[in-house]
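Input record (one chain):
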Amino acid sequence: MSFRVWTAEAPEWLEHWSSWPAREVWAHPGYAALYEDGATRALCAAWQADEGCVLYPLLLRDLRGEPFHVEASDTITPYGYGGPFFWGTAREAVAAAFWPAYDAWAAEQSIVSEFVRLALFDDELLPYPGEREQMLVNVVRDLEPDADALWMDVDHKVRKNVKKARRSGVRIEFDTQGARLDDFLRLYQHTLDRRDAPERYHFSRTFFEAIHARLPGQFVYVHALHDDRVVSSELALVSERNVYSFLGGTLSDAYELRPNDLLKYELILWSKAAGKSRFVLGGGYEPDDGIFRYKRSFAPRGLIPFFVGRRVLEPVLYRDLTESVGSPQKTGYFPLYRS
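The corresponding structure, as predicted from the sequence alone:
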């Protein structure tokens, strides 16, 4: 039995990930490394034993700089889905060994707190020892039914919109290389501006180029074209069993063509043809908002709760940090000292 912590550059991380049957893209070192900067390092806490294995990707954030000035760190999972991924035969036994080893390492690193965006499928995760809170509901399209059943299992308005897009001459193009990145970025920025999206969604061109370089075979762009112009575009991330809607955009003056309905539906069919089990559409910004209802129309019965995990590992330091930065700007934000 062994507990290890690896950096994204360590070949052991990729080897461990490659031995995992699910090979979730969220735990790939190339994905976690997308979020590194001067104060943030991508790490992976791992466990290897006959009874089971763990792969826990995280971002270690330095607290020595402004405004904290303490010799400490905290952790968060990379954007998307994460947590302590598990595969093997003895989940509870591995959890009983992994968490004490992890906590001992965290104490050595002076890790104050951790925030985890937990993966949707509990059978992929170790039990989490901290607080779990449901934040939203996500939409997951089961790909087991045949194509005719999938067609009938979307809302009537989706079928209507798909037919309209096809009649209007919209066609779909799949791109596994990023050849149309300029078109994607144009539509993505257009959508961010229209929605007045938070800063955390404003990814640079370099971010997407890094996906192309570090995650070959783990992504696909889907473009909807009308009169040879890309009017809707989406980037999806690809794991061994699942495909995840990630980022995208649509021209507002193309809405009447319904390109995104056709794009989503064709991506569902592409995922099924690729032998995947599920297509994850995600959720909205708020409970039951328009984005969530749109996604639900593609899988009306595929609703799965999305949880986050929180733990305070150094309570005294957590209290001191929170007091040092004054009143929190966002009620319920975790950790409070970063609000």
